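Quarterly update, task 2.4: iron/sulfur cluster-bound model.
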Amino acid sequence: MGGEILDKQAAEAPLLTPEVIRETAPIYKRLRHVIPEIEWPVHAPYVAAILKLKAERKAVILAHNYQAPEIFHGIADLTGDSLALAREAAKTDAEVIVLCGVHFMAETAKLLNPSKTVLIPDLEAGCSLAASITPEDVRLLRRHHPGVPVVTYVNTSAAVKAESDICCTSANAVEVVESLGTDRVLFLPDEYLAKYVASQTGVKVIPWKGRCEVHEKFAAKDLRTYREQFPGIVILAHPECPPDVLAEADFVGSTAGMIREVANRKARRVLMVTECSMSDNVSVEFPQTEFIRPCNLCPHMKKITLPGVLDSLRSMKYVVEVDPGVAVRARRAVRRMLDFAPQSRHSYAK
Ligand code: SF4
């Protein structure tokens, strides 16, 4: 039985032809610093097949900064952090959105553009933060902290967003918290992001106990070792990292913020304390900068592969749906974030 499945997959695998090599040559030219030449013939037939089928399906491919370079630079139409992908999903007029990221991102795309078919190539592309909290947990917290608004990181299920007053991403968390005009907020579910936000504002931040399984692995002592080894290195860290790691960094911010720092600082050597593929993807745009890569991969992001994306477009799977009753409330929390402007203040009443 297993042999039959493998035979079927092999029979459906796209072939490396001279035409495919020609078509994908300009893409590989950009990627040659991060993908060895010997590997490209494996990726190229999938890249060519996906680009063709994507056009036939009138699909748009959105890829998160943590996707592998052959996806990020090879097949994606739009790339970025969670906030950028949410904005792009909201405004696309493509009929199909293929989300190369994790499940909560696909749900957010569906919330913001409900008439579109949203596909995720692997249903197991989850997130340790999203898995750390349930809607019942949020209801319980509200009972313990009556009247305190709930700010929820987008790395949560639609059902948790539906229990929230407003969403945020790591790019706007501090501003969103301050926009509510209250002296305290419940901030869910990332404990470390909550601590970082608390360090940046006078608002009392009540955290949950969720953690990103990728960022929590970084250690401050490792960063000190890198500094000794590479004098002058610029260290950029994601706020999902532990506080002692952030204390060692030259800059703390979202993945989009890190990219801006690389562009602005024009540093010779950079260490991005975040998921490993991010450095590969950014290094394509900044070939003069040397990226030191402490390699922590997100196992969920890496569920998305080129064969998986091709299969997704061929079979139109896996379609992401959100219960309409949940969607209407979750959409309100996400919309409040997207409508957010630093000068405006939100009423937090549900
Ligand atoms: S990197 Fe962390 S926060 Fe991002 S999807 Fe993976 S587990 Fe979730």
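Highlight for this quarter: Residues 180 and 347 are 6 Å apart (CA to CA).
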